[in-house]
Design brief:
Blueprint: H1 5-13, H2 17-37, H3 41-63, H4 68-85, H5 91-119, H6 126-138, H7 144-166, H8 179-202
Helix pairs in contact: 1-3, 2-3, 2-8, 3-4, 3-8, 4-5, 4-6, 5-6, 6-8, 7-8
């Protein structure tokens, strides 16, 4: 039986022992934070989100690829998380999450198409467009700009560090795996939202 592509990429992306240890540590820390913040089904889904975000980041960092299997899995879990938050009236939150995901993916696709038309080259990949859809499913509208800004700032800082420490020349055509920054930012946005919800719940006591 052939091994799925995303599993092969995951193994190669974490082939070295230090890298594999760092990935495992990141997944463990993310899962722990999620469960401490929300010790319920929603927290469990957040813990899985943390693991998937780290895996997507590791693969994109090495191969500039975001496997569709991981994107679809994360998106479906996001819909499940929306239902878990409001199980009584589940169709409404699920449809709202799906609508946000579709809208955000469309925004990123328009940006991609416009950039390609103006500059004659690809600005962001389709994998980033799909991952933006995942962000829309998992996060509320007020949190989405925060997550995207975190990803953008992290990417910019990484570029500056490369330029100052490694001496790497940065050009307009220099490739940067945006999924490396956007995937963890989705989980960070989820943390921010749930920290706010926890504060509201505690204020009732």
């Amino acid at each position: 039986m052939p091994v799925p592509r995303f599993i092969r990429l995951s193994r190669r992306a974490t082939a070295q022992a230090p890298t594999r240890l760092a990935v495992v540590a990141a997944v463990a820390c993310g899962a722990a934070f999620s469960l401490v913040l929300a010790p319920d089904l929603h927290g469990l889904l957040g813990a899985v989100l943390a693991g998937l975000a780290v895996l997507i980041a590791a693969i994109d960092a090495r191969y500039f690829i975001i496997p569709d299997e991981l994107t679809v899995t994360t998106l479906v879990l996001g819909l499940a998380a929306a239902v878990a938050r409001e199980p009584a009236g589940w169709p409404e939150p699920m449809l709202a999450a799906a609508s946000r995901g579709l809208a955000l993916a469309l925004m990123f696709w328009v940006f991609r198409a416009s950039y390609g038309w103006l500059r004659g080259r690809e600005g962001i990949g389709l994998g980033d467009v799909k991952l933006a859809g995942v962000a829309g499913v998992w996060l509320a509208w007020p949190t989405i700009p925060v997550a995207i800004e975190i990803a953008a700032v992290a990417a910019l800082v990484t570029v500056l560090i490369r330029r100052s420490t490694v001496g790497q020349e940065i050009q307009a055509t220099t490739r940067l795996p945006f999924g490396l920054f956007l995937a963890p930012s989705i989980w960070l946005g989820w943390l921010v939202e749930n920290a706010s919800l926890s504060s509201i719940s505690l204020s009732w006591f």
